[in-house]
Specification:
The protein is of the alpha+beta class. The chain has 9 helices and 11 strands. It has a domain at about 255-390: Heat Shock Protein 90. Strand 10 and strand 11 (about 385-390) form a beta hairpin. The two termini are about 55 Å apart. About 25% of the residues are buried. Residues about 395-409 have low confidence and may be disordered.
Length: about 400
């Protein structure tokens, strides 16, 4: 299953790339947000530092104590600096260690500034007090963002690993299933083509042989007539095969569904098969919506098949509620052949002595599938076969209790 493995790897790589891209976006935005939150905490810390220094004499004692407690709860800063913005001649030089010229000008205009110094983050605020104007700077290590980034990295790695494994195995199972279906379809098509070629080749070979024999020497008018009669029969056989192939092809692609449907009693179709070798028993009749001609063809193929293999032993047709059974006492079907009964051109070994092309039952199943009817078969060799068709009734069941008299050979 190298192809399945290749498909699984391709789909897994695509999915992993999508998950990885989404994870990187999440990591980027969470990291950016956590840095902004940390800068907000630094601003609060810088304000607390300034207030503790310049508001002690102006605040009530209880409020000042609360401010001290609140300040201790905030960040553990690694450096703090308070500069006199009015009188410090070295102000811009000192601020230049942390801020560029534009940032210094913005700070002196009262706008808070964020900056990085080494691996630490810092914040500078412009604090105005009755004692003067001051520039307050604080720096601290952003341990919160580092922890968040590490946590996100671990979580995303686990998700990526788990997703990769799950997607690989799931896509491989899916690919294997698709390839199996493709392989089955290919084998069916191969058997179909081989069967069609074989069925058409036989009468063509017979026609060619008849012509060669007729041309070997002059013959009488009766002999030529017999030869033409044989050629005509083989030509009709080819015509029948092609006709069945076309109908089977149409039933497979669903084009038969576009033909007109009508409502009718199922017994109307069944009674047309009643003869000296076929008995029909209607226990509960019901209306069905379908194409009458196609449904008649589908059931007729099953009935004719039963008559062919049971010869004079008789065929029983029974309709009860939504179930139709067609039973014969013929040669039966081997257990190992039952799964292939509805495959086109399949013919069991014990059916080789009987005529046929192997398309009838496949065509019947295809037509019944179009109206959601389910067909099944059970059989015992040399005892007989029972075909069962379960219909889906789209209209209310009509109980006629006809119990018509049956005719048996």
């Amino acid at each position: 299953m190298k192809t399945a493995k290749k498909i699984a790897l391709i789909y897994s790589c695509i999915a992993v790339c999508l998950v990885l891209t989404a994870g990187l976006f999440i990591w980027f935005f969470v990291s950016k947000y956590s840095v902004n939150v940390f800068y907000s905490l630094l601003e609060q810390k810088a304000m607390s530092v300034a207030m503790l220094k310049y508001e002690k004499d102006e605040l009530p004692e209880d409020k000042y104590e609360n401010l001290v407690l609140k300040s201790r709860e905030n960040l553990a800063i690694s450096e703090e600096m308070i500069l006199d913005a009015d009188n410090d001649a070295m102000l811009e030089e000192k601020l230049g260690k942390y801020l560029n010229t534009n940032q210094i000008q913005s700070l002196l205009q009262g706008k808070n500034q964020h900056f990085k110094t080494g691996k630490q983050l810092g914040c500078a605020i412009y604090y105005q007090d009755n004692e003067g104007n001051f520039a307050v700077l604080v720096t601290a290590s952003n341990i919160y963002t580092e922890k968040i980034n590490k946590t996100i990295a671990v979580v995303l790695s686990c998700i990526l690993l788990f997703t990769s494994l799950m997607l690989y195995f799931a896509s491989r199972l899916y690919a294997i299933r698709i390839l199996d279906n493709k392989e089955k379809t290919y084998q069916k098509q191969k058997l179909f083509i081989n069967g069609a070629s074989h069925e058409i080749n036989n009468p063509l070979t017979a026609i060619s042989g008849q012509c060669e024999i007729a041309l070997l020497k002059d013959r009488s008018a009766d002999e030529y007539k017999q030869t033409l009669q044989n050629i005509y029969q083989q030509t009709q056989r080819i015509t029948d095969i092609i006709k069945n192939l076309l109908m089977f092809s149409h039933s497979q692609n669903g084009s038969m569904q576009r033909q007109s449907n009508e409502n009718f009693l199922l017994s109307e179709i069944l009674m047309q098969f009643k003869d000296e070798n076929v008995s029909v028993n209607i226990e509960n009749d019901f209306f069905i919506c379908a194409n009458r001609a196609l449904l008649s063809l589908a059931i007729g193929n099953i009935v004719n098949n039963a008559k062919k293999f049971s010869q004079l032993d008789g065929v029983k047709i029974n309709l009860n509620a939504d179930t139709l059974t067609i039973e014969d006492k013929g040669i039966g079907i081997r257990k190992e052949d039952l799964p292939f009964v509805f495959d086109a051109f399949f013919r069991a070994d014990n059916a080789s002595a009987f005529g046929g092309h192997g398309i009838g039952l496949a065509l019947s199943k295809s037509i019944l599938d179009q109206i959601n009817a389910k067909i099944s078969v059970s059989s015992v060799v040399n005892q007989g076969t029972v075909f069962t068709v379960k219909f889906v009734k789209k209209q209310k069941l009509q109980s006629f209790s006809l119990h018509r008299s049956t005719a048996k050979a």
